[in-house]
Amino acid sequence: MLASLSEYVQAIDQEAKINELISSYQKSLDAVMNHIKNWTWNDPISSVYKSLFVSETIFDHVPDQESFKHEMDNRYSNEIPPGYQDKNKVDGGFGDLLIWYTIIEIANKKNKDIIFVSGEEKSDWFYKSEGQILYPRFELICEFKAKTSNKHFHIIKLSEMVELFGITDSVVTELEIGEKIK
User: Fold this and answer.
1) Phi/psi at 97 (nearest 5 deg)?
2) Which of 39, 60, 114, 147 is least surrounded by Cβ atoms within 10 Å, i.e. has the fewest?
3) Pair 130, 171: CB distance under 8 Å
């Protein structure tokens, strides 16, 4: 009954074209995934990491456990950033504070400003407005400056870092999409 309508015939043709496009799109995605699966640490991100993470840049901060626990309890009970929002985690949420102390120690040992690459977005690291990250908490900036002879501290996302290293826009866009999904 509808086969005689030109609009119906046109809709059927368009449906066939859409199905063809979907099939072609799925094949392209499969090809991209196969390409990624064949990367052997030679992808754009790993290449940047290889240049950054050499033996001189790897650092293992090992604090005195008793004084660290005391300081962590004090900071968390007084909501001193960073990490106090993790205090209810099963492990006590010590990770952010350990990272923070490591960052400070690296700045002091290397006598350098620090850029911390992180996907962290919680308000114990950043000021936010309407769900948007604005800038690091002033308490962090002040503590960092006080403990590192006035050095500078910044936090950036991985997508921002790879963009600074000149990685292609498509890779940066993929990272930005991934950062939004988490």
Assistant:
1) -65, -40
2) 60
3) no
Q: Residues 127-156: pLDDT tens digits?
A: 888 888 888 889 999 999 999 999 999 988
* Tokens encoding 129: 């407005």
Tokens of 31: 């090809």
Please determine, for residue 166, whether its predicted confidence score (pLDDT) is greater than 70.
Answer: yes
Give CA–CA dist 182/177, Å, rounded.
9
- Which residues are CB-contacts of 156 (< 8 A; sequence separation ≥ 6)? 115, 116, 117, 118
What do you get for the CA distance between the two ends of the chain, in Å? Answer: 50
Q: What is the pLDDT of residues 86-125, one digit of tens each?
A: 888 887 778 888 888 889 998 998 899 998 888 888 888 8
Pull the structure tokens for residue 165.
Answer: 């290293």
Half-sphere exposure of 72 (CA within 13 A, CB side): 23
Whether the Cβ atoms of residue 176 and residue 182 lie closer than 8 Å to each other: no
60-66 contact pairs (CB < 8 A, 24+)? 61/98, 61/101, 61/102, 61/105, 63/98, 63/101
What percent of the chain clears pLDDT 90, i.e. is strictly above it?
20
